[in-house]
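Table S7 (text form). Paired inputs.
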Amino acid sequence: MPPSHYEVRITRTAEKDIQTLTPKLKKKLYEILTESISQNPFQGKKLIGDLSGSYSFRLTYQDRIVYSIDNTKRIVYLERARTHYGH
């Protein structure tokens, strides 16, 4: 039986974003990745425009994480880990 969860990989850009997060937000991000996105990556909001093909998941009121899904390999690529509202 295939594994039911997805592997999460973090891109260099997301790695830099994560370094700017507070310890509290890093913990929240880790929980979202392990408890939500790795279990069911399609629960995020499907993005359009420049980010078409990616998904967004709320981290805080203004911050989002942006990720893409490789369904064949069952890998989620974390692309961004902060707001995409120009901050």
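Next pair, protein 2 of 2.
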Amino acid sequence: MNPQMYQSSGDAFSFLSGAGLAILFPLFIAIAVWTIAIKGLALWHAARNGQKLWFVVLLVLNTLGILELVYLLGFRKDKQVLIPDVQGVENK
């Protein structure tokens, strides 16, 4: 058997050097900001509504905001709209 047959011709992560990393870094930052914001909102609602099981599950599992959105849109006890309704506000 030839040992050179198993040697890689390049580093598997060579695309992460230089320009590749510069392109991916803003994406990583955006994903981190999104995950923290949506997780914080979901945890706040779960704690406020006394939903301990949801709080623990949301705290432990990291799903890039998917589980948090499922909770916020379908399983919250308080089904108030996340964006306040401004139809009744008068302009002065």
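The mean pLDDT is 79.
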